[in-house]
Amino acid sequence: MEDLEEMLLEEFDNYSYAVEYYPPESELEEKAPLGAVHWISMGLCCFAFVLGVPGNALVIWFTGFKWKKTVATLWFLNLAIADFIFVLFLPLYISYMAMNFHWPFGVWLCKVNSFIAQLNMFASVFFLTVISLDRYVHLVHPVLSHRHHTQKNTLRVIIFVWILASLLGGPSLYFRDTLELSNYTLCYNNFHENENDLRLMRHHALTWVKFIVGYLIPLTTMIVCYSCLIFQVKRRSIVVSSKHFWTVVAVVTAFLICWTPYHLFSIWELMVHHNNYFSPVLRSGIPLSMSLAFLNSCVNPILYVLMSKKFQVRVRASVSEILKYTLWEVSCSGTVSEQLRNSETKNPCLMETAQ
């Protein structure tokens, strides 16, 4: 066990395994205080949690329970579900950072928390991509959209996205592990305890899969879809509001801002993990880039739904309906004697109750 700890300490000095920050041995012993960058990272995570829980819950409530089920509402509902599940687990990661990257929650929560993060990353990105494809086909190829734009086909795509995201996030359930080391409990990717080449190979493979499947392909698809959409709108004079155009720009921009640093730091780490000169930059940059990626979970409902004029109208109508029903109940409440007295004047509340 001591040999394993020494090996891991040496490895953690040079290699942070892409999604975690592992303090070097001196910091593990002294429990050095968190720096300004890590406080900023925690602040971003707290902001994502505070804004993401009510924002995604609002989208789930209206698209899942209040509005008619359409293809568009199904996309937004599942996107919000993916983000909502993830932000519910954010307090674990916030606590992890606040305790100077000490994990006291046990091995199973280490696995589950990491799996939820990976599941959200892939599911959220995939649903953003599907929404981009759906909007392009719906506006540019209306005949094809009318033929295949059904709830049945939509449900098939949704099930496929969740299965694919689960499979891609599944390695977290297998590789994540905990290790007690110098009064710290680390939650890390235990790719292999003894064979360094196998450990590096697995790390490289998973990092490149995340980059290509979870970033490069979706980003390329969104850019191509929206570029073709803008070109077709101008060429064929398709009526699209300026608000829709700026929403598209905001979506692509938010995706770039939130996810690009995370994937760049992950790839950079693969290239320079043997160079101690870059260790401080990686130890600060990786948590910060992760926090930026987490923000996408609270930005999604704002950009895709809350900026929609139709959504705003529907929300106001739904809130108005709720307030109207509440006021109706209040106006109809009272003592039995008051109700009997009012019945002589044909109180509409009693008439409604009697019916």
UniProtKB/TrEMBL annotation:
Organism: Echinops telfairi
The protein's name: Chemerin-like receptor 2
Ranges for domain G-protein coupled receptors family 1 profile: 55-304
Organism superkingdom: Eukaryota
Membrane-related topology note: Multi-pass membrane protein
Pfam families assigned to the protein according to its UniProt record, in alphabetical order: 7tm_1
Family membership: Belongs to the G-protein coupled receptor 1 family.
PANTHER family given in the database record: CHEMOKINE-LIKE RECEPTOR 1 (PTHR24225:SF74), CHEMOTACTIC RECEPTOR (PTHR24225)
Compartments it resides in: Cell membrane
Gene3D superfamilies: Rhodopsin 7-helix transmembrane proteins
Keyword annotations of the record: Cell membrane, Disulfide bond, G-protein coupled receptor, Glycoprotein, Membrane, Receptor, Transducer, Transmembrane, Transmembrane helix
Matches recorded under SUPFAM superfamilies: Family A G protein-coupled receptor-like
Keyword Transmembrane: yes
Regions crossing the membrane: 36-62, 74-94, 114-133, 154-175, 208-233, 245-265, 285-306
